[in-house]
Here is the input.
Amino acid sequence: MPAWTQEHEMLLVILAALSPVSLLVIAAIAPLLIVRMPVDYFNHRRRLKSENHPHPVLRLTVLLTKNILGSIFVFAGVIMLFIPGQGLLTLFIGIMLMDFPGKYHAERWLISNTPVLKPINWLRAKKGKPPLSLE
Here is the structure.
């Protein structure tokens, strides 16, 4: 491992420098997304998905874009688990962007935990939005 780090020292320096930038970007975007989320977002068994769009080219473009962007976030999150950065948060954002079987149940399980739901609903209340509804 030391030989690899010496060979890729510049890459590690760039990733370490991007770490605070990613923290600021995620810290700015996450609250906006949480506040804009519909109250019943986690109640729908079948939420509006990109495959429901009527135009096939646009549907494929949206699906590919979301999954590629999500994969980049997941990859960056895994890397940030080992270097300074917001690895878990970046990983979760990547997973939320991607489409895969069982995603809805994983999201419901995560959001139903009090340590996750309480701060989200606090932020929503602070911005004058009702708390998320979980059936």
Notes: DSSP finds six helices and no strands in the chain.
